[in-house]
Amino acid sequence: MVYMTSNRNQNWLLPPNIKDMIPKDHICFLVEDVMDKLDFSSFDIKYSGAGHPAYHPRILCKILTQSMIDRVRPSRAIARNGRENVVFIYLAENLAPDFRTISDFRKNNQGLLKDIFKITVSTAKELGAIGLEQLSIDGSKLKACAANNSSVTKEQLDVIEQYANNELMEGIETDKVEDTHFKDCRGYDQLTEIDKKKIKSLIAKYYKQIKKDDYDRISEIKGTIKEARKELEENELDKVSLTDPESRFMKNKKGRFELSYNPQITADHKTGIIVANDVCKESTDNNQLKPQIELAEENCGKLEDGTKVTVDNGYYSGENIHYLNSRGLDGYIPDQQDSQKAKGKKVEIHKFDKRNFRYDERKDWYICPEEKFLVFQREEFYKKKKNIRLYKGTSCTTCQNNKHCTKRKDRIRYVKAYPFEKERKEMAEKMQTQKAKKVYKERKEVVERIIGHYKENLGFRDFLTRSLDTVKNEFNLVCAAHNLKKIWILLQKKKEEIGQTVRIGVGINLRLILSEIFQLEI
């Protein structure tokens, strides 16, 4: 066997050009070209004047975006790549920002990181990679950077706040927290042994932080407690996390409740480009349809009448159906039964299901399958002050099938008419058609595939930062990374078809080159 001759100790005859060490078709050149088109004028003003020179924000934007593409997310790992990885050395322009600089930049520049995502959308649109003929919206729970045991109830927070104000702020030098230290804290005696143990653990952790750090940790602890109390009171929560007060308990796919956020995406069906994204604190998707449509129009322009919008049953409500109809959009929103059918599950609609009740708009009453009438009874508020109309059966007590129709002890059937009931019924009928079933089936092939891509391929299963604004920064980066990777894959496919070999980098008109390639049918 013969081995290749290696040159372990060979010196470079001439200083190498780092760019020549990177493959010509590497995605980093696309990242570089896109980042060079961002507006950094606000930073020029911010960093003008005396002081130590700062890293140009262009450099940090490039390495943060490339690291997300390469599923390298911790700031220390990104900093290490800036010293060791030739691609990152090239993008960092032979500089090596430390992990703290990278972390602070990612946390404090929400507007710029949002612009990175927007410019990927505008680039894709200019290239014709976005059709805006059909959009799909979906959300997915992602774990927050906070442990479940970091959450406290209002009663526990009251005791912690009193103790912090009375004892902790005086700097008691002890590593062991005794019950005698809490005797003056109101409400401590009413707590369970588990709650007392939890409070002692939290206070002990604060002691260690104060003794370990040189700067004023006490002020930070006060701020944490104040922020947690604000979240409890403003949002009427049962529990709040001291680590990340803006996170919420949400049920994940495994059925466990954990502190999480709910990121939302809107995807275009032509090539799977994400055209809008956001992160919310709500565990349900019901209130996110309208904001996503508005963000999509902000990034891509007004949607034309008849644009198809598909969502799952988590967005089902009369308000959302009415909003799409009022905008002239062709919505596809299944209710829970239609959603179960779309997943291949067998769903039996009972004879006395509300769907089988006919509504007479002229006389304002419902007619049941037994041809008996339900007349208007009263209006009432239901869940978040939704105004509903209640209809009561008039002949239920004499009906032979009343035991199959209702489980009430008085055997009287009531029907609730929610807002926009007529539009809800029209949507239910629409979702039974073959066309609607086909359109809804296409949804999971686009938007759900994107969610699977950033979770599995990009390793984005949880957030590394805390607070709603900073997790939005992270999510903008992962959505930008997805779009850039999608554009690059399409570009490579078209280059193979026409036999082109193009090196894209600074100084080359990216849009002109890509436009020529994308003239072919995608």
What does this entry look like structurally?
It is a single chain. This protein is an alpha+beta fold. Among the domains are: 148-243, no CATH class; 251-342 and 428-457, 2-Layer Sandwich (Nucleotidyltransferase, domain 5), CATH 3.30.420; 354-420, no CATH class. 43% of the residues lie in helices and 14% in strands. The protein has 19 helices and 14 strands. The strands form three sheets. Strands 1, 2, 5, 6, 7, 8 and 9 form a seven-stranded mixed β-sheet that branches. A hairpin with a 4-residue loop joins β10 and β11 (365-367). The longest helix has 31 residues, at 468-498. It starts with 27 loop residues before the first helix and ends with a helix. Residues 171-175, 501-508 and 517-522 have low confidence and may be disordered.
Layout of SSEs?
Elements (H helix, E strand, L loop, with lengths): L27 H8 L5 H6 L10 H13 L5 H10 L1 H6 L7 H10 L1 H17 L7 E6 L2 E2 L7 E3 H13 L26 H20 L4 H19 L3 E3 L6 E4 L5 E12 L5 E7 L8 H12 L7 E3 L7 H9 L3 E3 L3 H7 L15 E3 L4 E3 L5 E10 L3 E8 L8 H4 L8 E4 L3 H10 L3 H11 L2 H11 L10 H31 L11 H9 L4
Parallel strand pairs: 1-8, 8-9
Antiparallel strand pairs: 1-6, 2-6, 3-4, 5-6, 6-7, 10-11, 11-12, 12-13, 13-14
Structural class: alpha+beta
* Uncertain residue segments: 171-175, 501-508, 517-522
CATH-derived architecture of the domain at 251-342 and 428-457: 2-Layer Sandwich
CATH topology of the domain at 251-342 and 428-457: Nucleotidyltransferase, domain 5
Characteristics of this structure?
14% strand; 7-stranded mixed beta sheet; 5-stranded antiparallel beta sheet; 522 residues; globular; alpha+beta; 14 strands; Nucleotidyltransferase, domain 5; 43% helix
